[in-house]
Specification:
The chain is an alpha+beta fold. The longest helix is centred in the first third of the chain and has 20 residues, at 2-21.
């Protein structure tokens, strides 16, 4: 059998070579015909309550999708911002006659999916279960299970989510950027805070649902293996009793005007290990504008992906960032936007701004290379065609025609219009909609590291807090009091945590901790051990999975273990570990290795910033001016060809056998954050030298 199979493969290869030999590869193959797009025209009907239904029959596969869209104009909720998220999170989890668990179990049993929110919902199922899923969707929309108990749970979850985002550079950039771009009172510019969430009562949420979640301006798009007549009867049966509400038509307010001149809008985030840059301006661009297709290609050339100007410059050429992108969004309310973004290392923040602005001006002043224009259009066409395989995409296209007042042939002629975009069109729309001369360059970063160089760009800088309120320029350093040196700061710290005599009595430490990884579905626990002179180990465990990560150093050698792989520590890590002395570093610092750099501020409190040199490397250690306790360490290292900064914050000091130790610390390495909450600490017990082998 093996001989026959080998002979067959050999014969196949010979035939391929023979065919290839007949091809003239000196001639470029002719392009095939331009693909034609044929979207089924939906059958339509409308219920008496105003629900508009679009049905596209497609019997290729035995599946059906339902897309419900509540098309109310965007509305600002002011002092109760977040009410829409609260009520939306309660929808789709049971009905007044079906409990939450029973509802979700049936969806899972049928192998379907069903999600609802305040702006609509989506369901996907096999066609044989389509009527039941439609019935459940209607029941959940019209008769949702809304209880005060569930409301309070969702309220707590939302507030906890806000707390985890307090120092998130992405969350702050999104919030401040939108507020400055549109105005904090505009529906697209307002943001949710703990205060606005606490302003919302259960009664408020119910009233919001009754007023805004209704069929007045609703569309239901059904695509798949259905019969129009049958599904029409089913929709009338299950959605026919959905009652209209009061008319909620409202005028969408105008957005704030663009900046009068190019300016940096800076938010100081002292713990930021990188800077978030967003160059933005509003645009009045709609899908039915003649510029729409050209705007897509112009944006793709500038920052649509790995071949865009921004990516090529900031990542591939300069190595400033993992990626740089842009978007040029149309909006039927006249609230479109241009946005160019990147996250970069602190030390290159100013250079990244200069280079990004250079590329933005380039697309406005230089004609795009013909081959790049051709390739960009070809890539976009390919992605567009692949997207048609997704029923949800087709549903969105059908709905777009209705909501954006588009011609019926908008998508059937889409590719012709994309391919017709010229280099002149690209430059024209870039000049019309991309406005660097009126742009806000919103930067979230560590001011003490980046402001000095940003000022050298000559671009005016305005300062804001994390909630888009104008502020004065932060004071990044304060005068060092007379008589204070690095040595006196370290001595006071040693005294504050128990004194040299008590610290030297500590020969080993065993610490157990609960670990929080924001956004992760699991909650690990950690076991950390230390032993004089410099032995250390840590392991992370997850219930049901056991030990998922372990690191150990015995004073001479060490290893890291994870995902079933065990690897020895590299020479650089070993050298750093061997250089450590004792369990409390401050006892062994040499005066020549210490430098008191400044009085800085962390979370509103003054701290002494001390640079500690360790051979060829160094770290910063921050000690509270008031308590003398260590509140932060900051260390930068090379990893995978990238510069990575690790910031560790220490809090909640408690007395353990006469020594003050932090019971809470947070480690942030790049975008990854781990929060350790110590449950117990044992001194001089439970640890042996064998634990580090």
């Amino acid at each position: 059998m093996k001989t026959k199979l080998s002979a067959f493969i050999l014969l196949f290869l010979i035939s391929v070579v023979s065919v290839n030999a007949q091809l003239d590869r000196s001639k470029q193959p002719k392009s095939g015909p331009e693909p034609s797009i044929s979207l089924e025209v939906p059958s339509e009907f409308e219920l008496k309550n105003g629900l508009k239904v679009l049905v596209v029959e497609n019997h290729k596969l035995p599946r059906v999708t339902y897309s419900l869209n509540i098309d109310n104009n965007p509305v600002a909720t002011g002092s109760k911002a977040g009410i829409e998220s609260l009520i939306g999170s309660m929808l789709g989890n049971g009905t007044t006659t079906i409990s939450k668990d029973t509802f979700n179990e049936e969806i899972d049993f049928l192998g379907a999916s069903l999600n609802l929110g305040i702006s609509g919902g989506f369901a996907r199922t096999l066609s044989k279960y389509s009527e039941r899923i439609l019935e459940l969707m209607a029941d959940a929309a019209i008769n949702p299970l809304l209880t005060e108990e569930e409301f309070e749970k969702e309220k707590t979850k939302l507030i906890e989510g806000l707390k985890t985002e307090e120092k998130s550079i992405d969350a702050i950039s999104s919030r401040v950027g939108a507020a400055l771009l549109y105005g904090a009172k505009h529906p697209y510019g307002e943001f949710v805070t703990e205060e606005t969430i606490n302003n919302v009562t259960f009664g408020d949420a119910l009233a919001y649902y009754e007023k805004h979640f209704n069929p007045n301006n609703a569309y239901l798009v059904i695509i798949g293996d259905v019969n129009y007549k049958d599904v029409k009867k089913q929709v009338k049966k299950y959605f026919g009793d959905w009652e209209k509400s009061v008319d909620v038509t409202n005028t969408v307010p105008a957005v704030s005007p663009n900046a009068q001149y190019t300016q940096i809008n800076f938010v100081d985030l002292p713990n930021a290990s990188q800077s978030s840059i967003a160059i933005k301006n509003t645009v009045d661009l709609k899908m039915n504008d003649e510029d729409y297709h050209a705007s897509i290609i112009a944006n793709s050339i500038l920052g649509g992906g790995g071949e865009g100007y921004l990516f090529k410059n900031l990542r591939e050429d300069k190595g400033y960032t993992y990626g740089a992108y842009s978007s040029l969004r149309a909006n039927r309310y006249g609230a479109g936007s241009f946005n160019a973004t990147a996250k970069v290392r602190n030390m290159v923040t100013d250079s990244a701004v200069v280079e990004a602005m250079k590329e933005i001006n380039r697309i406005k002043t230089e004609s795009v290379d013909p081959q790049m224009l051709k390739d960009t259009k070809a890539k976009y066409v390919g992605n567009f065609i692949m997207g048609l395989e997704d029923p949800q995409t087709v549903a969105r296209y059908a709905l777009n025609i209705k909501l954006n007042n588009l011609p019926e042939d908008f998508y059937t002629t889409y590719l012709q219009k994309i391919n017709a975009v010229s280099a002149e069109d690209v430059m024209r729309v870039a000049n019309k909609y991309i406005k660097p001369e009126n742009a806000r360059i919103v930067i979230i970063g560590k001011g003490s590291d980046v402001i000095e160089n940003l000022e050298k760009t000559g671009i005016p800088i305005k300062y804001y807090d994390k909630f888009a309120n104008a502020t004065e320029k932060p004071v990044f350093s304060k005068p060092i009091p007379a008589g204070v040196t690095a040595e006196t700061v370290v001595s006071k710290y040693v005294a504050a945590i128990g004194g040299e005599a008590n610290l030297k009595k500590v020969n080993s430490l065993l610490m157990n901790a609960n670990v929080v990884i924001p956004g992760a579905p699991y909650k690990p626990t950690a076991i950390m051990k230390q032993m004089v002179p410099n032995k250390s180990s840590m392991e992370l465990n997850i219930e049901g999975m056991g030990t998922v990560m372990k690191q150990s150093f015995n004073g001479e050698t060490g290893y890291q273990e994870g995902q079933g792989q065990k690897a020895p520590m590299d020479d650089k890590t070993l050298a750093s570990k061997k250089a450590e002395k004792g369990l409390f570093s401050e006892l062994y610092f040499e005066a020549s290795a210490l430098a008191l750099e400044s009085v800085a501020t962390i979370e509103g409190a003054d701290v002494y910033k001390i640079k500690v040199t360790k051979g060829d490397t160094f770290e910063y250690r921050y000690y509270s001016v008031d308590s003398s306790l260590l509140v932060r360490t900051e260390e930068t290292a090379e990893a995978g060809g990238q510069t990575v900064t690790t910031i560790t914050d220490f809090k909640d000091y408690k007395d353990v056998n006469g020594v003050m130790m932090p019971y809470s610390f947070k480690v942030a390495t790049g975008p990854q954050v781990f929060e350790f909450n110590i449950t117990d600490i044992k001194v001089n017990e439970g640890v042996t030298a064998a634990d580090f082998n």
